[in-house]
Amino acid sequence: VYQPKIDIGTGKIVSVEALSRWNHPELGQVSPVDFINMAEQIGMIKPLTEWALKTACSQSVLWREAGFSAIRMAVNISPSHFLDKDLVPLIKGVIKETGMLPSDLELEVTEGVVQTNQENLAIFEHLKELGILLAIDDFGVGYSSFASLKHLNVDFLKIDKYFIDDMLTDNKAKLLIGSMIEMGHILGHKVTAEGIEKKEQFKMLQEFGCDSAQGYLFSKPVSANEITMLFDRSFTC
Ligand code: C2E
Ligand code: CA
Ligand code: CA
Questions:
Q1: Which of 16, 31, 76 has most ligand 1 atoms within 8 Å of its beta carbon, as the pocket-test mutant?
Q2: 28-51 burial string, b = 16+ CB within 10 Å, else e?
Q3: Taking a C-beta distance cutoff of 8 angstroms, is the pair 235, 206 a contact?
Q4: Are 10 and 211 in contact (CB under 8 A)?
Q5: Strand pairing partners for 23?
Q6: Each residue's pLDDT tens digit, 108-155
Q7: Which of 42, 51, 108, 133 sits at 20 to 30 Å (Cα–Cα) from 92?
Q8: Span 162-213, pLDDT tens digits
Q9: How would you label 171-191 residue by residue, b for 16+ Cβ within 10 Å and e otherwise?
């Protein structure tokens, strides 16, 4: 399924995030939180990522061919896979096979992987050389934020829902969000906020100068067909 990210300035969808779903015949809809962990434990995370990347990139190419050329595709990469030597060749292969424009692809990785040893930095650099965009997901809840920001060349910081949830009631959460946006901008990153459910949150993020937003307020994760209907819409506060 796909969930849109809205440009706060224009109100238009600029990107969609691919979120995996497992429709199990007996268990029903299994949350990715459960099966991603399991996939990591049993060594299935690589085929799963490969499937998610191929599915998402093929969809992105279809949208571009249908004339929706301003929509990027974001794919989550789990930490253990991000640090694997096979990741860069996998991404290269999928881009080649699907005909995806590298600049249409965003990879979301959590702060856990964003450590500053030479090998990790080299992976970021190789991915940037391919021309794809990188986002630090769940920003603010990890443990490596500041040291890693000093070294890394990422395009987006994605502020975690944890802060958004009580930004309207907790002054500290609000101050932290404002500071993260300001710091992100000073360091040359774009800032996205996730988990927006209320108009007031959207409004406050706009006042803070946040670049893009994602959440149930705009759309839950939906099928490719359903999201296509939203591409022409404008979301305003
Ligand atoms: P995430 O990357 O932080 O994605 C955001 C999660 O919050 C998604 O849950 C999304 O459906 C949900 N969400 C978005 N907006 C709102 C909102 O306004 N309110 C609420 N309550 N929730 C919202 P989902 O789809 O269950 O995914 C959970 C996590 O599983 C993701 O967190 C991501 O880390 C992981 N994941 C999902 N698909 C993949 C995948 O293909 N590969 C990998 N490695 N991880 C994945
Ligand atoms: Ca994500
Ligand atoms: Ca999150």
A1: 76
A2: eeeebeebbeebbeeeebbebbbe
A3: no
A4: no
A5: 29
A6: 998 776 666 777 788 889 999 999 999 999 998 876 667 778 878 899
A7: 42
A8: 999 999 999 999 999 999 999 999 999 999 999 999 999 999 999 999 999 9
A9: eebbeebbebbeebeeeebbb
Looking at the whole model, is its pTM more than 0.85? yes
* C-alpha to C-alpha distance for 8 and 221, rounded to whole angstroms: 19
Which of ligand 1's atoms lies nearest the C-alpha of 197? 18
Measured in residues, the chain has a length of 237
Number of CB atoms found within 10 A of residue 110's CB: 21
Query: How would DSSP label each residue in the chain?
Result: -EEEEEETTT--EEEEEE---EEETTTEEE-HHHHHHHHHHTT-HHHHHHHHHHHHHHHHHHHHHTT-TT-EEEEE--HHHHTSTTHHHHHHHHHHHHT--GGGEEEEEEGGG---SHHHHHHHHHHHHHT-EEEEEEETSSS-HHHHHHH---SEEEE-HHHHHTTTT-HHHHHHHHHHHHHHHHTT-EEEEE---SHHHHHHHHHTT--EEESTTT--SB-HHHHHTTTT-----
**Which ligand 1 atom sits closest to the C-alpha of 196?**
18
